[in-house]
Amino acid sequence: MLTIYKTEEEVLQEIKEISNKINLTYKDTEVHFIKANEAGNLFFSHLSKTLEIRYKLHELKYEKYDGNNLSGEVKITKDIEISLFDKDVIILDGIFITGRTPSFILKFISARLPKTVNFCILAKKNQDLVPSLPIPYCAFDIPTNINIVGFGIGEKSFRCKLGLFKQSN
Questions:
Q1: How many folded domains does the chain comprise?
Q2: What is the pLDDT of residues 77-112, one digit of tens each?
Q3: Which domain holds residue 146?
Q4: 37, 65, 88, 157: which has the fewest C-beta neighbours closer than 10 Å?
Q5: Residue 107 sits in a domain of what CATH number?
Q6: Do 36 and 92 touch, CB atoms closer than 8 A?
Q7: CB 44 within 8 A of CB 55
């Protein structure tokens, strides 16, 4: 069963506020956005509508290894096709839960020696994420006892829902 957690209007308002922050921070430079898997698609399609900066969009795809992967290590299945050296990079994703996989992705991207690298996410679930994760752009903090779906997050059948929904059994 699904119940509304954040309406479409609330989600779009938060995305617009994130866009405004990015516009201020990067007004004089080009940003390289990297979508991590599919979760960032819907998020970025709305974020880009209010961006007033120069940017390029890239895609990074990965798969989790089988089993209980406590390290967060993933197998890269589609890499970025340009050099990120001395560039401003923002990694887009849907939701962070433990921070282990984003930590792995951060190390992977940082090895390319970008000028800056930050995350832009729709939500984070764990307030105690790996402290070294640079997340200046996050729309919602979600309590750990709530499962959310929608706006690119969750199983395929729920990803296209506009708004965020609490999922209960």
A1: 1
A2: 999 999 999 999 999 998 888 788 888 899 999 999
A3: 2-64+72-167
A4: 157
A5: 3.40.50.2020
A6: yes
A7: no
